[in-house]
Specification:
CATH architecture: Orthogonal Bundle
Largest sheet: none
Number of strands: 0
Strand content: under 5%
Number of domains: 1
Oligomer: single chain
Shape: elongated
Distance between the termini: 33 Å
Order of helices and strands: HHHHH
CATH superfamily: lambda repressor-like DNA-binding domains
CATH class: Mainly Alpha
CATH topology: 434 Repressor (Amino-terminal Domain)
Radius of gyration: 17 Å
Length: about 100
């Protein structure tokens, strides 16, 4: 069991659980976290647009199963496809920030 008594910030908790930035464990965690965020944003935007996964797939030239995998955080997605899904399929603009 890990010792959490000296942890005072969320960043310290993440480091205790997944390692320091740049480690393999932390990189895996960060990648999964970003995929979760994208999947939730996609679900929310699609529901806001009041369209089904199938309708979104048709509008963007993908398959319903692909949209479903992304929404469930299970699929890898190319940036060009992500842009097409949000901008063409959902009429949303994408902004990227590199830190």
């Amino acid at each position: 069991m890990k010792d959490y008594k000296n942890i005072k910030t969320f960043d310290q908790l993440i480091e205790a659980e997944h390692g320091k930035i740049g480690t393999e464990s932390r990189n895996g965690y960060e990648e999964k976290s970003q995929m979760f965020i994208i999947s939730e944003m996609l679900k929310e935007a699609r529901k806001e647009a009041k369209i089904t996964q199938e309708q979104l797939a048709e509008k963007t030239g993908t398959k319903k199963s692909y949209i479903s995998r992304i929404e469930n955080g299970k699929g890898n997605i190319q940036l060009s496809t992500l842009i097409r899904i949000f901008e063409i399929g959902l009429n949303k603009r994408i902004g990227l920030t590199f830190l």
